[in-house]
Amino acid sequence: SLASTAITCFTRGLDLRKGTEDVLCPANCPLWQFYVFGDGVYASLSSICGAAIHRGVITNAGGAVRVQTLPGQENYPAVNANGIQSQVLSRWASSFSVTAGTKNTALEAVGRSVSTARPSTGKRPKKTLDKKAGNKDCKADIAFLLDGSYNIGQRRFNLQKNFVGKVAVMLGIGTEGPHVGVVQASEHPKIEFYLKNFTAAKEVLFAIKELGFRGGNSNTGKALKYTAQKFFSLENGARKGIPKIIVVFLDGWPSDDLEEAGIVAREFGVNVFIVSVAKPTTEELGMVQDIGFVDKAVCRSNGFFSYHMPTWFGTTKYVKPLVQKLCSHEQMLCSKTCYNSVNIGFLIDGSSSVGESNFRLMLEFVSNVAKAFEISDIGSKVAAVQFTYNQRTEFGFTDYVTKEKVLSAIRNIRYMSGGTATGDAISFTTRTVFGPVKDGPNKNFLVVLTDGQSYDDVRGPAAAAQKAGITVFSVGVAWAPLDDLKDMASEPRESHTFFTREFTGLEQMVPDIIRGICRDFLDSKQ
């Protein structure tokens, strides 16, 4: 029989390389964390073990599963089965099916030791290496923002430290697992230790025990803003592509305002959780500046990011549910910022009226907009099409996945020279450049750059692009008629239409385009 491979709860179909593979699912995967698309035939984006439980091939006790790769399809249905709600997906490039695998006893022991770490009789499984790595399934860089104000007092401050210590241990801190740091909020915020300082739970526990109580007003807003801005820098140990999380502990209520801090945290792509303890009583409510302080500060006021404990006593039962929240990276909605979650297509007019030197100014404009975004295989993507009567795809969304390569590709675009058929060019770009990414996670934007009247209709093709989920910005120079520009732009047209007499005026528009893309991105997420 084929040797089975032990996989994690989160291994997806697309992570496997072979057409048919025997795998071993661990026990006790958290059902509510599974992402599964379809029924019987699953999109390869799905968790394998989640699909196997959904299909009834294994239970939550884990076991052997045979995975068969299948072609992609359209309309994967949502079906609730065996405690898992699968989700709808309109189209995906590949699929898989799951059947019961062949048991291979030598590997079953490995599968078990990976999942529940039960000591086996006889030889100890080699678990030592994994301890250092930590819980790889939990992707998070976390700042615990402790309440160090007079509100909480020395005694409850110590109970708070014990609770945070328990959370830290259960998270499974390690080189490849979660990293944590601590900030104390009082009159002025103080960063006690950074993400990079410790990568083992033991060290973190010791550092938490050593924390001294500061006292002062509970300026939580000030501390939250400071943490969002200063704590998660790469030099302080934040990791690229890992969700940034701040867990704010609040005893009673804040002395200052949290709303602005919440906005800043969201802008910085930080997920804010609030753990509130001992909510203000009816008599105390009069002293609270803003009764809705929790909803103003959290990443989203959908209930997921707020957590309440009645007192600091007997908090052990609250540890695990909080850890499960902190480890569900798919729910970290604020990690997605406009800078790392958009596809921007540039449609560049190469007609004869532009001329070589003005064409360079257009390319400079394109580079400066692209530069602002975090371009990577899991982040934002950029594509460019040049048009006259004909269209030429200079590069598509998946051709270059680093910012350097994208910027050098833009520099190397050669001027075509010819007529102007903007409508055709929009249709071409919608179909060939945006078509392949239309079901992807990123929001789609098209920036049309033109210097003159189009020979064909632009209104129809632009409406079709918008219907396909693409937000259109039109940027006109020199002789571009305002009516055409407005006809192409998305609603509200005023904020999606730009015009300058001279090509040198393009430079001033760069920040407005970037801000416009970010504004539309945020509006679409509300």
From TrEMBL:
Residues 141-326, 343-513 form the VWFA domain. Pfam families: LCCL, VWA. The keyword Repeat applies. InterPro entries: ECM_Assembly_Org, LCCL, LCCL_sf, VWF_A, vWFA_dom_sf. Residues 3-96 form the LCCL domain. GO terms for cellular component: extracellular region. Residues 112-132 are annotated as: Disordered. Keywords: Disulfide bond, Glycoprotein, Repeat, Secreted, Signal. PROSITE patterns: LCCL, VWFA. GO terms for biological process: sensory perception of sound. CDD domains: vWA_collagen (cd01472). It is found in: Secreted. It comes from the Eukaryota. The keyword Glycoprotein applies. Plays a role in the control of cell shape and motility in the trabecular meshwork. This is Cochlin. It comes from Origma solitaria. The gene is Coch.
